[in-house]
Predict the 3D structure of the following.
Amino acid sequence: MAARVKALVAGNWKMNGVKASKKEVAALARKLAAAKKKPACDVLVCPPATLISTLKEAAKGTKVAIGGQDCHAKESGAHTGDIAAEMLKDAGAAYVIVGHSERRADHGETDAVVKAKAEAAHRAGLTAIVCVGETEAERDAGQTLKVIKGQLKGSLPDGASARTTVIAYEPVWAIGTGRTPTPDDVAKVHGAIRKALEARFGGEGAKMRILYGGSVKPSNAAELMSVPNVNGALVGGASLKAEDFWGIISAYL
Ligand code: PEP
């Protein structure tokens, strides 16, 4: 029988947001507080690093957690423009996304780099959200499962546990395009991820959260979130406005 796993709905603001955007987190927190029935999921917002402390303050005393979008593998040093996991933690983050396909594509991040970043997150006491996903060409070539298994093998630290690590399956061709895989396709990939996690991490692998990401919106969230082994969502565009993000969180009401 599948392990009971509390879902996570995480918003990735990417390179969007200024101080005034804290009103969206405040609005989200109000919706959460006002809901008669509380959603059966954790809620996370990952803004640009410049906003972590501002949003942490806006979310104070609420159920909204704050996270980073990337971190450096090292704790400190001569790495101009980079941010250590410890700095994210210090600013108020509880999670950090690593290995997002935009980082892999725009910054040439390999599985080994992503793994080092996930280890850094763990070292700092952050939960790492490790992203994997195939490109459209890989999908068309029937390589999806091979690619995903390879990314999991190379990107996940050996000591990963359900508390410290979340997986996000994000088909690259579905990110920001309005296109999504069918629920059957999502079920196949998430089932294969679960199997790989259990084979490597045993009982911890059975409990690790596996998020689906890629064009999740209020209109498709309930269907996607009801797929077996989908334990929440990683949401880009639709997480920027509290109204839309709440529409996705509502899949867990
Ligand atoms: C993402 O960037 O992680 C993402 C899933 O984006 P979107 O929801 O906009 O497709």
The first strand starts at residue 7 and ends at 12. The domain at 8-14+39-74+81-252 is CATH 3.20.20.70 (TIM Barrel). Residues 183-201 form the longest helix (19 residues). Residues 12, 170, 175-176, 213-216, 234-238 surround phosphoenolpyruvate (CB under 6 Å).
